[in-house]
């Protein structure tokens, strides 16, 4: 799955020292990503 979008990255405060970085996906993409993640391979 490959998608292109613009979004701001943010650091997870609970793991700031581990530098976990996240991005919030737009609604239409997040649903598609969730479905792809639950598919059997």
Summarize the structure.
The chain is of the alpha+beta class.
Radius of gyration: 13 Å
- Contiguous low-pLDDT stretches (5 residues minimum) are none
Biggest sheet details: 2 strands, antiparallel
Q: How many structural units, i.e. domains?
A: 1
Q: For the residues shown, what is the average pLDDT?
A: 83
In total, how many beta strands?
2
Report strand %.
5-15%
Protein name: DUF1905 domain-containing protein
InterPro entries: DUF1905
Organism: Amycolatopsis albidoflavus
Describe this protein's structure:
The protein is an alpha+beta fold. The chain is built from one helix and two strands, in the order ββα. The chain starts with 8 loop residues before the first strand and ends with a helix.
Summarize the SSE layout with pairings.
Blueprint: E1 9-11, E2 21-23, H1 27-38
Antiparallel strand pairs: 1-2
List keywords for this structure.
41 residues; 1 helix; 2 strands; 29% helix; DUF1905; DUF1905 domain-containing protein
